[in-house]
Amino acid sequence: MKKLFERWIALRWLLLAVGIALTVGAVYLGQGLSFDRSIENMFAAEDPLIQSHERFNRIFGGNEVILGVYKDDQLFAVDGTGLDKVRAVRTQIEALDGVKEVLSLDRKLTRGFVLDPESDAGIKLKELFAGYTHNRDGNIVALPIQLTPKSETTVSRVELIGQVRAIFDGLPGGMITGEPVMVVDGFKYVEEDGDRLGWATSLLLAAVILLVFRNIRWMIIAIVVVQVTLQWTHAALAVSGLQLSMVSSMLTAIVTVIGVATVVHYILRFRQYRDEGQEPKEALASASAYLLAPVFWACATDAVGFSALLITSVGPVHDFGIMMAVGAMLVLPAVLVFLPGLVLAGSPWIVDPASPWGDAKLSSGLSRTINSIVKRPVILMVLILLAFAVSLWGAARLRVESDFTKNFRETTPIVQAYAFVEDELGGAGVWDVAIPAPEHLTWEYIQEVQALEDRLRTEVPELSKVLSLADVVSAMMEAAEKKSPFRLPKYSLMRVGMGLLRDQLPETLNSLYSNDPENPDEYWFRIMLLSKERQDAQTKQETIEAVRRVVADFYAQKQAEAKVAEEDGEMAVHDGEPIVSGFFVLLTHLIDSLIRDQWESFALAIAGIGVTMTLAFRSLKMALLALIPNILPILMVTGAFGLLGYRINMGAAMIAAVSMGLGVDASIHYIYGFQRSIAGGLTPSQALVEVQQSVGKAVIFATFALIAGFSVLCVSDFVPTIYFGVLVGLTMLGALVGNLIILPLLIKLLVIGRTEPQV
Length: 759
Fold this sequence. Notes:
With 759 residues, this protein is an alpha+beta fold. Helix content is 67%, strand content 8%.
């Protein structure tokens, strides 16, 4: 094997040239890697929530709404200056490509009523739209902006929301809210985090390596290995047609972990052979021959563990499993191509890494660790079992974070906007109910809808607003009746009112009452709901279920009445199931969607990694011993989350499967070192001491370098990124303890036994 690597080193300049050419090509190809910003793709295609969402969008032409607000004390000034300003802002917004229509009170249909302080209709309209187009005090304007479906516009949501935000930034106290805004901001921060993690983390890791080993060459090698692997991975993803998503910022973290850990193992093993008197070329060949198998199997187990995510039904998570597997397997080729040329280029005297700071004390501490394990195995095992039990109890108490605003820092514009809107206007969470309707609206049907709305207001007090076309029609008909010198038939008033709405608000009318393009005979009526976005998951889910229950009860009653009407020869509405949908509903269940398959994928990752390590070690017992110290830290971290009351967000949703693939690398190096030391003539106890010193140091330096590197994520504005950085750091710290205490303890108890003399 060593001869093979000597020939490999002889080709170092050719390999380096090939590597540079491949990287240049990868940078070019990687530019085609796109970003999937669709929140809908975060759900499985067969998920009833997404099916209802897509059906609703098909019927009403989309349900994405941005709410823009600004301050104006003269909103309802009798001279009309406030509404003139509303009209000017509305006109500016509706001129944007991607905006379907803006709901406001400046229209001819409503303007005269709301400006007349003596008008009963005006008072009713202002009360009706309070919390939707203005606040109750009448000094804050709110403009619900309905967006054109993505399939019908060429302007991206990022560009459109930027344009809308620019308009409101120019208004007094102007700001925008809405689920589309949160989603765009979330993806923006994720992209920024990906860039930050790609370079800032690598530089910080390199600085730690430079500080510890005091060698610029090896610092550069660490940066090159990580960045080259990332560029190759991005190129592979672009060629395959895969897209990055909200969960893909972790890809950089994974590649960084594997790449840095591999380089640190090379540093320490290379230094060991140099201390034994070998020349740089020979030392590099010896280190490569020693590390090839454990590095290969570490990358392979990472890839197998990440591939467990392929069983998930959520597209971005499924694709992320492929991305991580590709990234893990490309670390070894990057090392093999670039390492010999970079290590041996230039003067040989600057190739040797220095002894790490505190090396003697670290060696002493690792020796004491082994002695403690040998002397007190039973006590340690009891403590481990106790920690395992407490972790399971804590994991059972985990709760999900459904308030999407909690994914952002309190200082971000979107959180400040939501806080302002929900304090001044009520709820900012927008969602809808769609119920079957007749082909032609009747006064009787309008009354039925209002009865349903009254039930929703009464039985679901968490709703801050319930509004529909029925309320507008009722208010306008009441005003018309009062103005008319004689009593007009209801159907005549309905026809006139609907005609005016169709003339002045055509898009709004189509978005409130429409037929299904796939079933033209089915007509649907939309009821708009508002509720607070900033509330806990349980309250949100209970609110959604309460609305479904009330609507289902109404539907069942209408079905019974329809059967009677059909028997009497009367026309009835179609029997389609009511729809409860909207981004508020999707975002409430987003984390549930992400974590639904995670425990299954975690179990599959354990099984796959177990099989892979059995092949690597040629021992089922050793494979099982390697799994235990890596499963426990994951359970302890998730258990601590449950015990301390922290909620699971996107950053924590997939931590189990991801961490399982990362932590096991150290176990592979540890057991390989143990087996090779025995093969080299040491007794099992001596081998345990030797591997604790050699592999133990590499694991410690790599872990603390990575924790330092991931600290850069704590400056993110996207809270899941912060969680992910902290959780990966904690899990790796736990894996460090597991591999330096639990693993040698298990080897002592189950492999060496008590018969061999202690060292």
